[in-house]
Every structure is written in structure tokens, then in C-alpha cells.
Specification:
Helices cover 19% and strands 34% of the residues. It contains three helices and nine strands.
């Protein structure tokens, strides 16, 4: 095939379009590969659909490498027991807010977390059994604060590891 200036331009335009389509239409190839159970939480009358990270692998993966989080969704990290927890934002591209909850669902502490940080950690300080991650500012926007209670509606067959 002989490349004329016209053919050459069309070739590069097609190559660029294919690369863009692969980048933006593919699922988050490097996002966590786990199919997570879903549940609901209610805070001050507001409902959120939650993906539930309940194993060491799914908790380690969390929301890392995702490009977005729908406005009415969150990730709920469920642990077997209540103890001091610390989170960080390694490989997490979405700015998030996190609420640490005790065994009864009471919010102990809320942090605003910056995306893709490796040097900053966010501790619960008090023993926490759950952590709830939402889009950054969601708690502030809805006037949710420490002391508020999160009502959890989780699948009954959830096996927390």
C-alpha cells in the first residue's frame, strides 16, 4: 500500500480514534476485579446503595483505580471486630470522604481524603467496625456529622472475614 498524504492522515486519525475508544470504553481494567455484594445504608433519611468489602482482599482493593463513583453509591468496609482502623488513598483516583462507624453504626469520625496519596493516613482513633467511603464532600453537603447513626441493611448471608 502506498501512503499518500491523504491516506496517511486518515490512517493516523483512525489510529487515534481507536486508541481513544479503547481507553474510554473499556471497563476499568485495573480496578479491583471482585464482584462485591450490595446493600443499603440510611443516614438521616438519605439512602445510599453500597458495595460491601468484607474480606481482606476486597478491603485491600476498595475503590482503588476507579475513575468515578456514582453520587448515590458508596463503599462499606465491614470488619469482623471493632478496633482502631487506618485508611490511605494509594492508587485511589477519586477524592473521597470516609466515616468510621462503631458496632452500632454511630459515626465516630469523618475525614476528607485527597486522591492518590501514599504518605497520608486517616485513622479512626476509636475502635471502628465499619468504614463508609463516599464522594468527597457528601457528608458535609448532607449535614452528616459524628454522632449521627448509619442504619445498615446488609445481606443476611454475608460472611465477614
Amino acid at each position: 500500500m502506498i501512503l499518500t498524504p491523504s491516506t496517511y492522515s486518515r490512517f493516523w486519525i483512525a489510529a487515534v480514534l481507536l486508541a481513544l475508544m479503547a481507553t474510554f470504553s473499556a471497563p476499568a481494567a485495573n480496578a479491583c476485579p471482585y464482584q462485591l455484594p450490595r446493600g443499603m445504608v440510611t443516614i438521616n433519611g438519605l439512602e445510599l446503595s453500597v458495595e460491601i468489602a468484607h474480606t481482606p482482599e476486597t478491603r485491600a482493593c476498595g475503590l482503588s483505580k476507579r475513575k468515578s463513583l456514582a453520587e448515590d453509591t458508596a463503599m462499606l468496609f465491614v470488619f469482623r471486630d471493632a478496633r482502631q482502623r487506618t485508611f490511605w488513598m494509594k492508587d485511589t483516583f477519586i477524592p473521597l470522604s470516609i466515616a468510621f462507624l462503631d458496632e452500632a453504626g454511630k459515626i465516630l469520625r469523618i475525614h476528607t481524603m485527597q486522591s492518590d496519596q501514599t504518605g497520608t493516613t486517616y485513622p479512626s482513633v476509636q475502635p471502628a467496625r465499619y468504614a463508609l467511603e463516599v464522594n468527597q464532600g457528601w457528608f458535609r453537603l448532607h449535614h452528616i456529622k459524628p454522632g449521627d447513626t448509619v442504619q445498615l441493611s446488609l445481606p443476611g448471608i454475608l460472611k465477614v472475614q
